[in-house]
Amino acid sequence: MLTIIIRTVMIYLVATVAVRIMGKRQVSDMQTSELVITLIISEVASLPLENTERPLLNSLVPIMMIVAIELIVSLLMMKSRKVRSLICGHPIVVIRDGSFIDSQLRMLRISREDVYSLLRAKDISDESGVKYGIIEPNGDLSVITQEEQGDMDIESKDLKDELRKLDDKKEEP
Amino acid sequence: MKRGWIAGLLIALSLIAGLTEYGYVRASTSMYLSLLDEAQERMSKGEVRDAQSTAERLERRFEGQSGMFNIFMYHSEVGHIASDLSRLKEYARTGDASEFLATASCAKTEIEAIREAKSVRWDNIF
C-alpha cells in the first residue's frame, strides 16, 4: 500500500507536468488528437497504480514519448497548414449568404436541426441573417452575420480556401 | 522553439531509459545463461561441489542485481527466477542431479523469455 501511495504521488506529478507542458484546454475545446492523447495518458498513467508489479518506467516512458510527439506535431501544425489540416481537419462552411449548404451537412453527417440548435445557443433564430456559418475542427459552430461582415473581405486563409472550394464545386457540371 | 527543445529532451530521456534497459538486460541475461550452462555442465559431469559453488554464485549475483531488474521487469518474473536459483543451490547441496538440471533448464527458459521479450523485434512490437 505504501508503494501505491508513493507511486500515486509520482504519477500525479508526472501527469500534471505532462498536461502542463502540452498546454491543455478544456475538454470541449480540444482537438480530436488532443482528446485522444489525454485519454491515452490517463490510461497509461493508471497502469502502475492498478498493478504494483508493473515497473513505473513502463508508464513514465510512454507518457514522455506521447508528450514529445504531441509537442513536435503541434510545432509542425504551427508551421504547416497542410499538417494542421491533416491532423485537425479544417473549418467547413455549412451556411452561406443565409442558406444551408446541404452537401456540406451531409459530409459532416449532421442535420439542419443540429445546426439550428447550435444557432439558438448563439441567440440566432435561423440561418437567414447568417453570412457564414462554419463548423470548426473542434465541432463548434462559428457564425458571421451579414451585419458583422458587411462588404469586408474574408481575411482568414482557412475560410478563403474553403469558400474557393465551394465555388469550384458549384462551377463543376 | 522551446517546445522543440522540451520534445527533444523527453525523447532523449526515453531513449536513454530504453537503451539502458536493453543493454542491461541483454548483458545480464547473457551472463546468467552462461553461468547456468556452466552449472549444468558441471552437474552432468558429476562435479557436484563445483556445480554448487556456481549455483551459489548465481544466487548471490542475482540477489545483488534484483533491485535493478525490478526497475525494468515485472516483479513476478524476477521472483520466479530468484526462486529457481534458490532451489538450484539446494539441489546442488543435496546432490539431486536430475532436479538440479531440470530447475536450471526452467531458469534458463525464463531468462531467455525475458531476453526475447526485451528485444527490438517485429513480433514484440506487434
Q: How does this structure look, described?
A:
The complex is a heterodimer of chains A (173) and B (126). Chain A has 173 residues and is an alpha+beta fold. Chain A folds into two domains: 2-86, no CATH class; 90-149 and 159-171, CRO Repressor (2-Layer Sandwich). Chain A is built from eight helices and four strands. In chain A, helix 1 (2-22) packs antiparallel against helix 2 (32-50). Chain A is elongated, with a radius of gyration of 22 Å. Chain B is mainly alpha-helical and 126 residues long. Chain B has one domain (2-118): IL-4 antagonist (De novo design) like domain (Four Helix Bundle (Hemerythrin (Met), subunit A)). Helix content of chain B is 90%, strand content 0%. Chain B has helices spanning 2-44, 48-72, 75-94, 97-117, 122-125. In chain B, helix 1 (2-44) runs antiparallel to helix 4. The model of chain B has no long low-confidence stretch (mean pLDDT 91). The interface between A and B is medium-sized, with 18 and 19 residues.
